[in-house]
Amino acid sequence: MRPPKPDKRARQARRAAKKAQKTFPRDHDGPVVLYGHHSVAEALANPRRKPIRLLATENALAKLKEAGLDGRIAAGIVRPGEIDRLLTPDAVHQGLYLEAEALEIPTLETIPAGGLVLVLDQITDPHNVGAIVRTAAAFAVDAIVTTARHSPEATGVLAKAASGGLEHAPLVLVQNLARALERLGERGFRRVGLDSEGPAPLDETMFGDGGIALVLGAEGRGLRQLTRETCDALARLDMPGAIKSLNVSNAAAIALHVARRARPAAG
């Protein structure tokens, strides 16, 4: 067989690149902004994260050097005020500011079949989502599924609240959450929605032998009706104290602990 002509090879390469881009989309459109020691250090330690520009105070850069993380990109040495001007007034940057490329992320099809997944139903507060990402990284969650719309971007405040968790707990962005839940069900995931009015406590809920998808709704509104209907089971977190409700990031931590204890090998 004759090799393809150069122009044909170029077309094949472009098609392959488009296919790869479609298979592995990015968690953010355009460069992301990361600040604070943990967020920047974890990003520089992640070979999949490509740095673009790093600004650092002398003291902050010295800490990166101590950790052996100063070799990825040359840093511009600045005063703290120069970083202040690039961020919101309440941003705690600890003398580090990094612009980097967005991460390639998995799709619903590439999440491990027996994995542990968090599904976020229109949780819009970047502090809450960032805290959930940090918790998910601690519990070795395989993916966090959320909608491309009605969710905060994987940059800035969210990244700071995640404290480096974005490098370890990938976001899967979908257009329609109900259809994404249906697809997870087709792949064998047990979809369990957290609901304060759930018929049984979470620790008494059967998770099965396949993958686990824990579904969390926004504070106040909870799970939307279609999301509830797409879950295999609804479960509640019983609190023994006077306050019965939890911040959604705290609820995520407890739910992940229960799921890991029920199935330590999940994911």
Automatic annotation (TrEMBL):
Species per Swiss-Prot/TrEMBL record: Chelatococcus sambhunathii
Q: Compositional bias (Basic residues) at which positions? A: 11-21
* Residue ranges crossing the lipid bilayer per the database entry: none
Q: Which Pfam families match?
A: SpoU_methylase (PF00588), SpoU_sub_bind (PF08032)
Protein's recorded name: RNA methyltransferase
Top-level division of the source organism's lineage: Bacteria
Region (Disordered), start-end ranges: 1-29
Q: Which GO terms describe its molecular function?
A: methyltransferase activity
Note whether Mitochondrion occurs among the keywords. no
Gene3D superfamilies on file:
3.30.1330.30, 3.40.1280.10
Q: List, for all copies, the residue spans of the domain called RNA 2-O ribose methyltransferase substrate binding.
A: 33-106
Q: Which PANTHER family match?
A: 23S RRNA (GUANOSINE-2'-O-)-METHYLTRANSFERASE RLMB
Q: Its Gene Ontology biological processes?
A: methylation
Q: Does the keyword Protein biosynthesis apply?
A: no
Q: Which terms are listed as keywords in the entry? A: Methyltransferase, Transferase
Q: Where is the composition biased (Basic and acidic residues)?
A: 1-10
Q: Which SMART domains match?
A: SpoU_sub_bind
